[in-house]
Specification:
Length: 805
Amino acid sequence: MTFLREFAILISRLSYTNITLARSLAERDALTRSLEETADRLGRTQEIAHIGSWEFDRRTDRLIWSDEVYRILGLDPAKHAPTYEAFLALVHPDDRTWVDATYSASIADGAETWEVEHRILLGGTGEVRYVIERCEHQRDESGRVVRSVGMVHDITDRKLAELELLSRHDELQAAYEQLASIEEELRTSFDDLAGSQHRLQASEERYRRISESISDVAYSCVLDSSGDYTIDWIAGAVQEITGYTAGEIVAMRCWKAIVHPEDQAIFEREVLSLSPGASSHYEIRIVRRDGPVRWLRVSANCTDTGGGEIRLYGGWEDITAQKEAEEALRESELHFRTLADRGQALIWRSGADGMCDYFNEPWLVFTCRTLEQEKGEGWVEGVHPDDRARCTRISAGAFARHEPFSMTLRLRRHDGEYRWIQDDASPRFDTHGNFLGYIGHCLDVTEQRRAVEALRETAEKMESIFRAAPTGIGMAEDGVLTEVNTRLCDIVGYTRDELIGRPMRLFYSGDAEYESFVQEMYAGIRKAGTCTLATRCVRKDGVIVDVVLSSTPVDPGDLSRGMTFTVLDVTKQREMEREIAYHEEELVRQTNSLAVANSKLNLMNSITRHDILNQLTILLGNLSLAEESGPGQEIAGYLSRMKTAAERIRRQIEFTRDYTDLDVRSPEWQRVSGVIQTAALHGLPVDDEAGDLTVYADPMLATVFSNLMDNTVRHGESATRVRVWYRPEENGGLTLVWEDNGAGIPAEEKERIFYRGVGKNTGLGLFLIREILGITGISITETGEPGKGARFELLVPRGGYRIPE
């Protein structure tokens, strides 16, 4: 009853301890979730900004990418190891040599930084993306670059928009330049024409009338008696224009034969219907001899020469080039307006006076205003009042210098919201270098600015989290502290100023303890890239605290670059865990002891009540028969049976003694040969091949071999020798064999012989053997062949034996 009462008190204490532990674990889980959320926010921030970080150790050629770098490059961190060669392989082939050369040049030229914009091909898909790479070079004392630390920013969306705008700008610029060139050519042509007309006015009357409107070909026709005009003279660039000679045209009698079919009606209306004193000027197409169509500007003057002769005098001017230029101009203008109206950019144009004369359709849709409302300075009404003066100052200065300019302003959208606009403008010039004004394109960058602002706020939050985190956070380089948060100071009892610049050795009581921690930490980092260790630190006041310290290197290839680490104070938790573990061990030990004691008591009770009482019955029965025998009657048989019963009682009592001692002492390493020699002193000869084999077994191992020898002697019948040997097994275990050359054991008895009470004697020897061996996990089976001897195989588990080399 006293034991049960103490056991109940122990269970009660254990329950209270478990409740306390549960509360402590809940607090720890809350802290862990907070840290995980902090890390998740930082990862999402990098993902939103499309900015990844990387580090390249030039001494080890080790390259480290953050998760965002893997996302930007389209790679799986589990399948692709970061190397400089792998990075170059992802760079666009047209950029690869240049990127490698500029990076190498920045190192060779002694530059502190490197920045480059280039294209990459996404891993797996080959999609082209645009990125900006920036890094800082770190040098050793000799000035040699040992490490580059940088970032990569995915600017694909912005870059594609810029390229699209640039392409449109170039096309518009080319169109304007082409139009200016055509305008100049036309002006020159008209000037030449005016000079020719002026010179021809001084010639004879016949040629004066013809030359009033020609520049390339002159002709003369006479009205014949049939009422049709017959050409009788033509001169100039006839063959160059028509492909026919002048004689061939005259032979046609009327040049209507070469007029384009669709323009025949124009020819008849403008020429054949003329009356004397009338003239006509028109444009018409002809078909050259070799098939191409040419445009002519034709003049015709009808004159009565007197004497009843009616003549037509006129000329042709080849205007094919002008017509083609006009068509090209129309197509270019249409193309420009199509591009400007279909894109997302807001495009504007101004003249040399600074007044805007064009806004594309996206601009008008954005502001919901008409072109007339926006022209001139009308567009300024949509600019935020706080931005107007600055925008006017920037644009006016650039106009005065005829230089490109860029500015950011807020422009009112159709819904009344002011949106941030990036306005980039370039000056326009004609082919002679004359300033024509500006053309500009604008992009809505409101969301981009919001993302930048969100990133800044996130960075500030991360800084606040670092300062206010419930877990100690710090950074160290070459074992020297470079940054710590408030919680870490609270854990170790120092102020921030007392820790910055001090070695981490400060937290350990001795050099050996610190070096052991450093070696274990480095080993874990080399294996997994990070390491979490349970360790003990010394506070400033000398108090020892239990902590969990997690370290991650800035550069896994060079641990001297620095470490980022967190420190979690688990002192109270460890104290509670140790107390719980002690109570659990004590409970298990007492429970096991109770179970063993109960089992032994049950067995002893069974043996004492059943087996010994049976033998006492035999003993008392034979004693009674002997007492009843008459004088001279033989009682030797009774006495023999009484002696046998008494011997069996003695053996039963010896077994209960041995079984009671079983598992009382701890198992130990025992040399098999030594145990066999002790156990087999009074048995058969033993061929001992165990050598220096030792096994981990209960101290009663000698009883095992003693009982095996007793079994051989009693039941082996013809047995004369025993052999003991062993063999290693493939699973790491070892089989120890005891075999004799006696009669062996029948197949049906091989398993039953290990049951209690089975056998020709007490039936307890082999049962006791299995119990002793089972304490350390050793099993025993009988595998001999009946008629050739018994063979007992003891299977020793892995780690339960030693074989000296």
